Amino acid sequence: MAVPEVDKVMLRQLELMGFPTARATRALHSSGNCSIEAAVNWVIEHENDPDIDQIPLVPKEIKIESGNSLLISEEVKLKAHKLREQASQKKLDKNRSEREKEKEITQSAGKLMESKRVEDDSERKRMRALLKAKEEEQKRARERVRQQLEDDKAERKRKLGVPYEDLGASKPATPRVEEQRQSPRQLPAKRVTKAELRDCLRNLKRNYKDDNARVKRAFETLLKIIGNIVNSPDEEKFRRLRLSNPKFHERVGCLKGGVEFLELCGFEWIDGDRYLFLPRAKVDMEALRSAGLELHSALTNPFFGLLSVDGY
């Protein structure tokens, strides 16, 4: 094995542009030794290769013919600079897009958690109010009994000629204290549990454990669907999903476990199984918030779905 022969003039031009000798040699050899522009393009496309700065080796009998090296050195430099700027801008755009997506996920999860906190506070206030009302009613009932006993005692004192023992026959019955009982709150239909939601997401991730990007995209899509309904439960467009929608089918519909998760959240099949629909009357905000929190955990917890019992 030997170092491949490349055009010395083009090699020198690349070195003057700031490329290391090994990288310039590999670029010329891999691009066919045809032109400076081709070599620069190859460097831009393969700048992240682990062996880009290693001298390539080829069999000794292989020779590379010289290519066209007639480009002016300054023109080549401008071309390389422009290509580098384009590659850099592409990376910046990709990083910006990823940051915006992560920000959107964080904001959606924050809204779900805040909504859950507000609902919990409201439930605690309601329970405290019910407990206080019950205590006050019991206090009023005890007061009515005490007053009745006082009235009976006064009545017996007025009947001084009647022996106290005989009062039992004529003693008026203690009036029954009617306590207003609050009708028990009707229990809702069986609500999906966090464990069921978590198991569904865990199974989805395990079904596609070799394609993390696909799983992440599915979780992000599901979180967006749930978040839209929580934020705007009266908007039917957020509660009606067309199964033939290409994006929905690619990201959720075709994945084993995607539609099942939506069914756990209350979605139903309608119109000949062409749509998934969540009726407004069946929107369970607590269940949807739980689903959103489980999805957020699945996106942010790197160990989600890897253990039989989650440690969080």
UniProtKB/TrEMBL annotation:
SUPFAM superfamilies membership: PUG domain-like (SSF143503), UBA-like (SSF46934)
A matching Pfam family: UBA_7
All residue ranges annotated as the UBA domain in the record: 5-46
Protein name: UBX domain-containing protein 1-like isoform X3
Biased composition (Basic and acidic residues): 84-105, 113-124, 132-155
Superkingdom assignment: Eukaryota
Coiled-coil segments: 194-221
PANTHER family noted in UniProt: F13M7.16 PROTEIN, UBA DOMAIN-CONTAINING PROTEIN
Region of interest: Disordered: 84-189
Species: Ananas comosus (Pineapple)
Stored Gene3D superfamilies: 1.20.58.2190, DNA helicase RuvA subunit, C-terminal domain (1.10.8.10)
Keywords assigned by UniProt, alphabetized: Coiled coil
InterPro entries, sorted: PUB-like_dom_sf, PUB_domain, UBA, UBA-like_sf
